């Protein structure tokens, strides 16, 4: 159904019996690879080893103290910053970052 046809259908549906004619959709379940970063130098290196295609555009760290003050990675279209306790997500070959509260709200562990 093209945009024009769908728009006419929605307008007609809402004018008539909206509860019977409005179409509802839900998102498809997807599976992503995800790892929570602890904000340490060691954790940063572990994620780089785990994901060889991960591209760091910049970072500032102190290896002996095991600290990272900032870590910037390349997403599909633009760089993004990783923050302590954020999740590094790999979905369809594209990396992104998500805050812990949003991650728990969006994803649940896969069985198996």
- The shape is elongated
Structural class by secondary-structure content: alpha+beta
Strand order of the largest sheet: 1-5-6
* Residue windows where pLDDT falls under 50 for at least 5 positions: none
Number of strands: 6
| SSE topology string | HHEHEEEEEH
Kindly state the mean pLDDT as a whole number? 86
Main beta-sheet annotation: 3 strands, antiparallel
Strand content: 25-35%
- Termini gap: 38 Å
Tally of separate helices: 4
Computed Rg: 21 Å
In short:
Helix content is about 30%, strand content about 30%. It contains four helices and six strands, in the order ααβαβββββα. The two termini are about 40 Å apart.
List strands and helices in order, with pairings.
Layout: H1 3-15, H2 18-21, E1 33-36, H3 41-50, E2 56-62, E3 67-74, E4 79-82, E5 87-91, E6 94-98, H4 100-106
Antiparallel strand pairs: 1-5, 2-3, 3-4, 5-6
Explain this structure.
By secondary structure, the protein is an alpha+beta fold. The protein contains four helices and six strands. It has helices spanning 3-15, 18-21, 41-50, 100-106, and strands at 33-36, 56-62, 67-74, 79-82, 87-91, 94-98. The strands form two sheets. A three-stranded antiparallel beta sheet has the order 1-5-6. It has a three-stranded antiparallel beta sheet with strand order 2-3-4, covered by helices on one side. The longest helix has 13 residues, at 3-15. The protein is elongated and about 65 Å long. 9% of the residues are buried. The mean pLDDT is 86.
